[in-house]
Amino acid sequence: MIEVGIVGGTGYTGMELLRLLAGHPQVRVRAITSRGNAGTAVDDMFPSLRGHLDLQFTAPDAETLGRCDLVFFATPNGTAMQMVPELLEAGTRVVDLGADFRLKDLPTWSQWYGMEHACPDVVEQAVYGLPELNREAIRGARVVANPGCYPTAVILGYLPLLEQKLVDASFLVADCKSGVSGAGRKAQVHTLLCEANENFKAYGAPGHRHLPEIRQGLAQIQGSDVGLTFVPHLVPMTRGMQGTLYARLTGQANLQELYERRYAAESFVDVLPPGSHPETRTVRGTNMCRIAVHRPADGDTALVLSVIDNLTKGAASQAVQNMNLMLGLEETAGLQQIAVLP
Amino acid sequence: MIEVGIVGGTGYTGMELLRLLAGHPQVRVRAITSRGNAGTAVDDMFPSLRGHLDLQFTAPDAETLGRCDLVFFATPNGTAMQMVPELLEAGTRVVDLGADFRLKDLPTWSQWYGMEHACPDVVEQAVYGLPELNREAIRGARVVANPGCYPTAVILGYLPLLEQKLVDASFLVADCKSGVSGAGRKAQVHTLLCEANENFKAYGAPGHRHLPEIRQGLAQIQGSDVGLTFVPHLVPMTRGMQGTLYARLTGQANLQELYERRYAAESFVDVLPPGSHPETRTVRGTNMCRIAVHRPADGDTALVLSVIDNLTKGAASQAVQNMNLMLGLEETAGLQQIAVLP
Amino acid sequence: MIEVGIVGGTGYTGMELLRLLAGHPQVRVRAITSRGNAGTAVDDMFPSLRGHLDLQFTAPDAETLGRCDLVFFATPNGTAMQMVPELLEAGTRVVDLGADFRLKDLPTWSQWYGMEHACPDVVEQAVYGLPELNREAIRGARVVANPGCYPTAVILGYLPLLEQKLVDASFLVADCKSGVSGAGRKAQVHTLLCEANENFKAYGAPGHRHLPEIRQGLAQIQGSDVGLTFVPHLVPMTRGMQGTLYARLTGQANLQELYERRYAAESFVDVLPPGSHPETRTVRGTNMCRIAVHRPADGDTALVLSVIDNLTKGAASQAVQNMNLMLGLEETAGLQQIAVLP
Amino acid sequence: MIEVGIVGGTGYTGMELLRLLAGHPQVRVRAITSRGNAGTAVDDMFPSLRGHLDLQFTAPDAETLGRCDLVFFATPNGTAMQMVPELLEAGTRVVDLGADFRLKDLPTWSQWYGMEHACPDVVEQAVYGLPELNREAIRGARVVANPGCYPTAVILGYLPLLEQKLVDASFLVADCKSGVSGAGRKAQVHTLLCEANENFKAYGAPGHRHLPEIRQGLAQIQGSDVGLTFVPHLVPMTRGMQGTLYARLTGQANLQELYERRYAAESFVDVLPPGSHPETRTVRGTNMCRIAVHRPADGDTALVLSVIDNLTKGAASQAVQNMNLMLGLEETAGLQQIAVLP
């Protein structure tokens, strides 16, 4: 049995890691840490796990974590970079669900995250964990930077278009919508039910931390910088994310065929039939990204609708997918859930 | 591989049967019927099943269904009773998720369901499929009447109290609350999002079809008729059900111990620690019933909080549990899902 | 123009007072206080008020408040009792939306609110502000204790039955349900959208602060102590509250007639036709209490369904109704809104 | 007192007209028609109106309607055009909340609405009822085509930019989101709470009826055809609509000043301070459009966030605003509601 640790287990991505790993056939959670809740039984805090997981929160402890085959960080930004070097030395692999290792350009990172980076060398070796883009590198990686939720939905949506250089990459518009769980489990006024329910709004229009991450990913695909307007919105629901992606076509292509071909071998990207509109609920709790591609009125606009669950493909289940790759397991192991509908 | 059929697969309980059976290790769905959608691929109607189930709806056909080991009826009341006798003759077992075989007293049945019963003899042999009450009879049954959602939550909640004759059974109050999916997937004004959202109301206060079913179940346990006031309410959410159950204590007992002991061997009833309040979301999509028992202010009122998911333990997963028992499979097979939270 | 002040204007009841008073024909808000937000324009914090109210939050200041005709306290429990004596001396009337003056029995108050009372003499002269019960006393009051939301719904629901001594008052069951706004606007994990949405649960089953308040009100009506089991539940919606009230009938009466007669002259209690189920959305944002009364299966149980909006009739609009009475205005002034549906 | 009629009063826009007109100081609803519900009291169907409106539904009758000063049509598309000519002859003014008179180009109308137009001459004289664009013409109109909800949000959002010819009008992107009430009150599966709740999706990506209407409006402003990609989405809430509007700047301007100046005299368009994100809940139930304008990263993209309530400014209250103009009343009469928050 492979043994893993989770640092920071009391937020939503930590909860989801627990659910997924409790059902993973080859993995056992050896330790889950939470300074504030050390000694509390995990299923006291999360009663949905009663009967599925017999574990207590512990204080983070490098020795215990260092004995794990792999450690997930589900911590606030800036935490993982303090502990990762020591774990790497102990031979443990790491998947960071935070943003510490996502941006290669450190001044950009510092500008958006407001601190100096603690281990630039680890940033250098870290692999951006989007398997559909970087699968082979992930297999060999010791540190994987698990992508943000918006970047996952947007990069997977634009990928075939940019790979084929079919659009004007200087004016891309990514209008994105997220359920409220993207804001995490901390107590805040603006995510109270009474504030977020029966309401819709944009946020971060002047700038959002996921913008440089998306631009980095798209630039890798396109081979050059892209011009991107990215506007996130808050949807009054718990989970689910859609990227509605616009681009002006510069070349000719059968977009439906292009997308189907590109993702034919991918287990977790599902290209819908022509004329479809993916629904976020169909991917709830799963590792699936569902995509539909349109060309409205047969004009020169490519329109891509890309949906994921922000907490799974946008965080925890993608982290498990990365773990599977890093440890040589079946890529889909533990990730075959069907969304619960309605 | 055991082969099963589903009659009436386009409603919510049919959808849930598909999800659960697609993940069941020993069962294959051979046929799913829908007159109106014959020829349609199941995953065209339910895209969440894409990649998990390769099946088309077919018109109901006694021969095909008769070759199944077991057939589930997820049909409107009054449909199953027309087809079941023929299937029984063909040697097929039946689980009816509707109400055709739930009430032993046929005049009462006719009064509440507004029709004559088509096969009184099948009613006689049918077993009421609440495993925690009738497990052995279910194992040997050829027809199981799968309980209604409210009856499941209420009977499991009162069971230990009535078995021990600890309360005044002439004045029981079951104040129940259900998510909107209990009303099914048919187009109706009062279950539109705009009608049911941000709203709370009682319904059926003058009388509800589940009342005689609950009274029949409680009378079986108590050994005599009970006086029950049952008021259902509609909660603005998709899934989940709570019975808040009140009774006046006539005897002495440690209620916590009583409940823990009674359900110690049950895989799908979870008695919470003293002082708890079960949450419907912790059982979402699962076969679990979570119960807390209180005695407010140490007075003479027993208060039981009993939650289930109305579509799973209240319908589809309980049907699978019954199937497991009827076919000699592990009772928990295919039913170990963890609720997706948040 | 009458001038009023609001102490503690940044919570939900403060917001609602602002909305209602901005539309009141005879009243002007002179001051609204918030220590933490002094200097902020009210409509910066609450953009829905843009164009309707030109006011800034100020630090609480006894002199300014003392020049108001009436001051509302929309503050945490324990705050009003520190400031009220000084305001009374200045000749200002007070409506406290908190609990400081609701319970006449001070030891009980201290037990539930965890502090000593600062001004027992003011408690003595304070009038419990349920106009349908205490209208004349309110007219003459200098301090009104505005009722809690649950007490409003429950007392109005039981009132006609207890006035007529028609039920066994030793075993009353009030099963109550509230929208999440009852928990206020402070940042807390359990009222986050992601925690409260698509979920239903009871809370406070072992005991809730509104229990002694309800019992005090019912005892006033009945003329003796009552036995009450009160269980509140959290409904996944912002506003709205229902009390589902059960009692065992001991006398004979036409309940429908009784309720219609009792409330015929009340502007804000609406008894629905026989067989009805009131919906919380029909009272949203209004001062109305809608009631239906049933006798299920013509048995000996009286069932009352009583709905209010917890933030208006359960708090802010009832406070305005009390203000109208105290200041000799038309009781319905500023309170004629129609609920916005759907 | 001015007398008005409403044809088709049982849908959401009809309900909203009733609410608004019941509170209008100078108007009385003389007749509200519904073939299917003739004889039913309005407040039996809509209990929120109990005590506010004493009226029964009647069968539509040209004579009664013809005696009204103005008649609103809140009917399915294709109904108004059958009755309007007769009413105009009787001297009655008309506001059609449907689409019968919105498009000047009749072949386009027929293509999108699937029928021949019954009265092309009335189309010709009809005025498109967006007061911020066509106020003077509305004052003199006998027939006003009340705009669709998406067109209202989008046209008001783009108006200042196009008037000043500041953007590349050949590539506009309007990413729009609507609450579910936009789909009306008819029973449909896809708008059931269980289908629409906790879900997000685009719809109509290949083409939507509001596209030609928006293009017609924008072309009027720009003075020439525009290239527009319009993608609507369904948000899991009852009310509210946002247009997130993108355009590539070709000229220089201070966008904030431009918007503030353009709308300075408008009672129902509120330009928010720089850096804002309007929330749909702040306009709920009101006639307000709230707009914020951004230029992300000081680049060449203009980003406009425009929110309305789809049932009020997007339908019923804009119809009342048009009525006020047509009848020479104060434009804001009966339209001063404050949104109920939270």
UniProtKB/TrEMBL annotation, chains A, B, C, D:
Pathway: Amino-acid biosynthesis; L-arginine biosynthesis; N(2)-acetyl-L-ornithine from L-glutamate: step 3/4. The active site is at C149. Keywords: Amino-acid biosynthesis, Arginine biosynthesis, Cytoplasm, NADP, Oxidoreductase. One of its GO terms (biological process) is L-arginine biosynthetic process. Its main location: cytoplasm. The keyword Oxidoreductase applies. This is N-acetyl-gamma-glutamyl-phosphate reductase. The lineage of its organism: Bacteria, Pseudomonadati, Pseudomonadota, Gammaproteobacteria, Chromatiales. The gene is argC.
